[in-house]
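Customer escalation, tier 2.

The customer says the design service returned an amino acid string that "doesn't look like it belongs to this structure." They asked us to rerun it and document both sides in this ticket. The original structure tokens are below, unchanged.
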């Protein structure tokens, strides 16, 4: 049981105790913890079982750095960044912290000593001089390539260890490659930081500042304690530079709520602890008011407003609590004094998934059932096609010869539109993939003909590999011929479908050969999709896996 003390003391905000073993730093240095859920009822879930949350999958929940150009150049460790999906992707997130007295044993202060708790979402950015953008791209590209090589070696090493009893020579060779790749990454990272200082890269930390209109009609940021002369502009704001640990929190904040367990439940994870949590925003209705000549953050054409959050920025969360000043009388509601503020460490950096993120949309797939001929015949007898979609065509835009000067009204049934659209999609999809070389899209199960037969041993082997499996020489030697046979069958089916439709691109005969000549990792992913087939519907590999529970005895010693 944690002891409460009343003497004046400094405070600390850390991760909740069950996250301490994962962060590999002393508890006092841990950062706010993000917890993932697949239900909009995440608050009820957290209140009842604070530790119960979904696993952050190292493949699905990480993504590459935003590629919005050198203006967003922010060197961070690792090639992949934590990725948070949107609420429309059926994923939701909490941020959780624990409050302590900064004394040996990290005792918990009383909850009534806190008069305000919240968190801010900030954006780290760096501006590169226009004369150095080319060099910046090259250095970032070299660093990304070196990190990718290091990741590939580490994956092969992990595969060898999972396979059990790897040979000493193979394991030693992989360890040597890992050390060499790691030194290369460290060298390039150091060179990048030296270069950034030499050319004058301007790094800044941005916070969201709501806007208001002053008495003179000028737009000004809304201060922490606005005056009567300022008229707030709800929903409008700007990203502006802020300090790391301000005493006055003028930027927009989100609330943190206390986790108060049932006093009778002595086994609750929050029993005897002072814990706070908040809902991580992945979208808001707020808009950023850009300068007249400014461009949207994602590199879109010039605009005067942009969403507050986008998928082209890197964000972090800092939590804070304001201590009640005993000299101030208690007031009902929110902040009741201007006592000292205690800030947490910044959370791990993260980016947001785009609205059309393939993995995110796979969490909540949309299924369209095509009607059969009997259904269409019955609908036609009832006149159900009338009123589906009505198109009014002006006289100068008609595609057929119809007399009259007024609009021509045509009604199309939605099933008819769906059938035509699906036919056109299936007709041109393989041609577009062929023309643009989009072989990797086959890994997303694009129109795999259900008639393709794949060798049973190959199908079983592919199905048993994790998504991040890197095909190696041993895999190629064992299944290379069977993979090529599957590609030949797939290419033949695509060629047949295009020929039957009256199309025959001149290089369609090279379709199978081009699939065979892809890199080993792409060959594995494409073969896996062909083997599973378009008719094999399954949830993403990271779906609904929960973190193991951490017991107090694993963290606290007697």
């Amino acid at each position: 049981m944690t002891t409460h003390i009343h003497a004046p003391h400094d405070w600390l905000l850390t991760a909740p105790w069950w996250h301490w073993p994962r962060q590999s730093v002393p508890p006092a240095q841990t950062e706010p913890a993000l917890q993932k859920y697949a239900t909009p009822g995440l608050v009820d879930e957290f209140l009842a079982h604070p530790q119960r949350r979904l696993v952050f999958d190292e493949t699905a929940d990480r993504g590459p750095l935003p590629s919005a150009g050198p203006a967003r150049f922010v060197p961070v460790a690792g090639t992949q960044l934590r990725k948070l999906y949107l609420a429309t992707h059926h994923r939701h997130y909490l941020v959780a912290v624990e409050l302590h007295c900064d004394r040996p044993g990290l005792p918990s202060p009383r909850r009534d000593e806190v008069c305000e708790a919240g968190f801010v979402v900030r954006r780290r950015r760096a501006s590169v001089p226009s004369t150095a953008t080319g060099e910046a791209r090259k250095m970032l590209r070299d660093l990304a390539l070196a990190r990718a090589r290091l990741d590939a070696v580490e994956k092969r090493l992990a595969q060898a260890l999972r396979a059990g009893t790897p040979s000493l020579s193979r394991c030693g060779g992989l360890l040597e490659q890992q050390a060499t790749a790691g030194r290369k990454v460290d060298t390039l990272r150091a060179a990048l930081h030296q270069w950034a200082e030499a050319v004058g890269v301007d790094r800044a930390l941005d916070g969201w500042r709501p806007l208001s209109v002053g008495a003179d009609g000028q737009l000004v940021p809304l201060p922490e304690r606005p005056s009567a002369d300022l008229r707030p502009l709800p929903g409008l704001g700007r990203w502006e530079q802020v300090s790391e640990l301000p005493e006055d929190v003028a930027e927009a904040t989100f609330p943190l709520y206390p986790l108060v367990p049932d006093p009778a439940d002595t086994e609750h994870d929050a029993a005897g602890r002072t814990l706070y949590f908040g809902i991580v925003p992945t979208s808001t209705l707020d808009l950023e008011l850009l300068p007249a000549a400014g461009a949207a953050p994602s590199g879109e054409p010039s605009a005067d407003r942009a969403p507050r959050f986008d998928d082209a920025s890197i964000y972090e969360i800092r939590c804070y609590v304001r201590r009640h000043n005993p000299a101030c009388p208690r007031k009902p509601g929110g902040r009741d004094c201007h006592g000292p503020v205690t800030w947490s460490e910044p959370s791990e950096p993260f980016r947001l998934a785009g609205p059309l993120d393939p993995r995110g949309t796979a969490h909540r797939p949309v299924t369209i059932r095509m009607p059969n001929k009997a259904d269409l015949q019955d609908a036609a007898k009832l006149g159900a096609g009338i009123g589906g979609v009505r198109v009014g065509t002006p006289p100068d835009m008609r595609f057929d010869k119809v007399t009259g000067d007024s609009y021509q009204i045509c009604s199309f049934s939605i099933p008819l539109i769906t059938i035509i659209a699906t036919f056109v999609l299936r007709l041109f999809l393989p041609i577009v993939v062929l023309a643009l070389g989009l072989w990797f899209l086959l890994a997303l199960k694009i129109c795999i003909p259900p008639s393709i037969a794949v060798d049973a041993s190959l199908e079983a082997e592919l199905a048993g590999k994790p998504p991040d499996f890197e095909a190696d020489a041993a895999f190629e030697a064992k299944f290379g011929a069977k993979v090529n046979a599957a590609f030949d069958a797939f290419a033949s089916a695509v060629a047949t479908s295009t020929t039957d439709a009256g199309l025959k691109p001149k290089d369609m005969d090279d379709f199978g050969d081009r699939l065979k000549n892809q890199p080993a990792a792409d060959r594995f992913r494409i073969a896996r999709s062909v083997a599973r087939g378009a008719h094999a519907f399954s949830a993403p590999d990271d779906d609904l896996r929960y973190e193991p529970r951490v017991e107090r005895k694993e963290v606290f010693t007697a």
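Tier 2 assessment: The sequence is consistent with the input. The CA atoms of residues 40 and 388 lie 34 Å apart. The longest strand covers residues 114-127. Sent an explanation to the customer and offered a walkthrough call.
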